[in-house]
Amino acid sequence: MAGIVSYGVYVPRYRIKAEEIARVWGEKEDMASNLNVFEKSVPDSDEDSVTIAVEAARNALKRGSIDPARIEAIYAGSESHPYAVKPTGTIVGEAIGVDHELTAADFEFACKAGTAAVQACLGLVSANLIDLGLAIGTDTSQGAPGDALEYTAAAGGAAYVIGRENLAAEIEGFYSFTTDTPDFWRREGMPYPEHGGRFTGEPGYFKHVTSSTRGLLKKMRTIPEDYDYAVFHQPNGKFPVRVARQLGFSMEQIEPGLVVPWIGNTYSGSSLIGLAATLDVARPGERIFLASFGSGAGSDAFSIRVCDGIEDIRNRAPRVRDYIEDVVYLDYAVYAKHKGKLRL
Amino acid sequence: MRFMRSVSIIGAGCTRFGERWDDSLRDLVVETGIKAIEDANVVGEEIDGLYVGNMSGGRFIEQEHIGALISDCAGLSRLHVPSTRVEAACASGGLALRQAVLAVASGYSDVVIAAGVEKMTDVTGGVAADALAAAADREWECFFGATFPALYAMIARLHMHRFGTTREELAAVAVKNHHNGRMNPISQYQMEITVDKVLKSPLVADPLRVLDCSPITDGAAAVVLAPTEVASKYSDAPIKILAAAQASDTLALHDRREITTLDASVHAARKAFGQAGLVPKEIDLAEVHDAFTIGEIVAIEDLGFVEKGEGGRATEEGLTAIGGKIPINTSGGLKACGHPVGATGIKQAYEMVLQLRGEAGERQVDGAEVGLTHNVGGCGGTALVHIMSR
Amino acid sequence: MSTVPRFWRHIPQRYNLVGNHCENCDERYYPPRTICPNCRRDAKMKEYKFSGLGKVVTYTTIYNATDDFKRQTPYNLAIIELDEGPRLTGQVICSPEEIEIGMRVKPVFRILGKEGERGIIYYGTKFVPEKGSV
């Protein structure tokens, strides 16, 4: 039996409001209400998926007082790795002070690269092949200027230390549903992604999240009411609310983990930051349901039971709420400069 | 710390400083060499050695081996004269002078030329700035985003915080030096400026603005040295070297004992005054290292002309003007005269020679008998202090 | 900016503020020194990892930078005195109005620079005000 020994998140402090983006593009509709996303996080010009991953990982190690020498696998998932060839994981490893006896590789599966990394760590840990594994989901996602995605594409990351003992939360089981569905993609070398518009909804997000959720509930022989909390991938503030209702989860269950209205869609960080926000408040014995979604497409669902250990470690590093509340607002011009949208 | 025999300057020359588009480094070397040698009344066969200060031939003109280059340009290669390039960033010129003095003082050489040259305008401003940044600590200052002006700006900021030095007092240095430069035929800038103009110039590294900073300049200078006992054979007005002192300090500003004091200047000055048997108030005028306006303020404190912290006030009150108690940078300093890095230390000696001979024209300091030159490398990793007299 | 081996050699120093400590005279150094200036050959140097907490000794805001850093201006540069003693030079991320002498800072992991669009990315430590940051 394996699970979460510790966790950490990082969200850059800059924000841009949906209304500011709408102002620049002459958008008359109330985009913030349409999407239920009021503002999104913006990385500083010297931040990227690697620096975010490092801060999240350092927080995870600090929270759980983890000796970095025990980490024997690092899997970093992102769709904005700064290098196409040269792994994010090795830079994170050096920055957190691992010794060199470990394996590492980078993952990509749109917004669910982070949960895939968790599954890989679970495998190695459960098979007793490693002591601790570090799974990271991190992104500084890009939305093309003027495109709908610009309102939600944000920056942030979460890191999870996976192990066998001293668990903060046990992962009781997982179930994944994966198909070849081209709902959203980015070709090699292109700066911005393409998406299928409304096609990303039903055939994309909803089909995969509902399939993985129903699959896990059946496998675990549980029903939504058995869970105290539920976290779904948050591309905007509407989809997770709708899918929760479709599946029989309540607003009370998803509320603590619903962070997208305040920080936007952090892509590979999204469901993992939502999970962290939930772990920040959940009590020992409570149960959390998590389903991520990655375009391409797939969904990983997890059944998680919070352990006594959470109380000891919870407050030893910044909580999601601390990052949500630490804000500096930008106007569109400075935002564009930070995101490198101005081709210099 | 004693010369085996006394050394004097028997001749000096200097090119016009500025953006010398038509002239290469070689052209500048020859121009100044001829002036110095003619002034010294020596012939090629008499020259026992050459020393040249040049900070960064490699970065600016992709040329190293500058020692051999200047010997060749000067037509001295066939005489196989030993020629040595020395480097101490912005103090390369002062270092060349000291090395040449020691060569003569030791008895090893008789007639030696100390030159300095820098050709900075063949590259763009960005490349030049990066070449100059090599005077700082590349690994631990520049890598983290430090620029050369930024280091002096941090000295200025702390000096203002600790001693109440004002922005106007910094500007007063630039105004004075431009006023002096206007009267110097070789000066890069020959126009007056005002405090207001300095304060309105664009920010480079707060609190330093464009007019607080010395410019990018091409130029060369040379002096000819001989033993004092035979100097009158060559010159009616040989200038005796009373002291040639040098000191080092940490490379990075953050490692200094005290950020608002350049210990290298203090120690070099102490050794120089000791060697000459003089104290600061016996100096009639000085050329000091004003790569940035704050540099001059700190220098006149470190050299002992004013108390620590008083440099700004002293400048604003006119203490360092040509008619003042201790005229500083009558040449226009680095700020107005220009700063072809390797040449500056020798130009300072050239100015001192003119002043001590009474040949400084409009900018002459009355009764100038003993002068001091002060040349700094980087933001204080090296300092050279020379004292000379009529 | 620099060559790859020169940057790589000092990754532990830049990522994690690893300096050293002379056990003979008890002085701590960052960046690390091979020779202790106090003890020279009598030095007993051991690796030492600094917390990164410290205060601003002096600072400037750079408006005009070398080519490598041109896109980042204006940015703050400071000499920071670490709590354990040594001083270092580093960027402080806050507005030019916010930074002041004596301000407490803590370390963050950021991009120091990039070698153009195709070269490597140099990561390292910068600083933020301790007060008011997460």
Keywords:
heterotrimer; A: 344 residues; alpha/beta; 3-stranded mixed β-sheet; 13 helices; C: mainly beta; 5-stranded antiparallel β-sheet; 3-stranded antiparallel β-sheet; 2 helices; 41% strand; globular
Architecture blueprint of SSEs:
The complex is a heterotrimer of chains A (344), B (390) and C (134).
Chain A: E1 3-10, E2 14-17, H1 18-24, H2 31-35, E3 39-42, H3 49-64, E4 71-77, H4 88-96, E5 103-107, H5 113-126, E6 132-140, E7 155-163, E8 169-181, E9 184-185, E10 194-195, H6 201-220, E11 229-232, H7 239-247, H8 251-254, H9 260-263, H10 270-279, E12 287-291, E13 296-306, H11 309-313, H12 320-325, E14 328-329, H13 332-338
Chain B: E1 7-14, H1 25-40, E2 47-53, H2 57-61, H3 66-73, E3 83-86, H4 92-105, E4 111-118, H5 125-133, H6 138-142, H7 148-163, H8 167-181, H9 195-200, E5 203-205, E6 208-209, E7 219-227, H10 228-231, E8 239-248, H11 263-276, E9 285-287, H12 293-302, H13 311-316, H14 333-337, H15 344-357, E10 370-377, E11 382-389
Parallel strand pairs in B: 2-3, 2-4, 9-10
Antiparallel strand pairs in B: 1-7, 1-8, 4-7, 5-6, 8-11, 10-11
Chain C: H1 4-9, H2 11-16, E1 18-22, E2 28-29, E3 45-49, E4 54-62, E5 75-82, E6 87-92, E7 104-114, E8 121-129
Antiparallel strand pairs in C: 1-2, 1-3, 4-5, 4-7, 5-6, 7-8
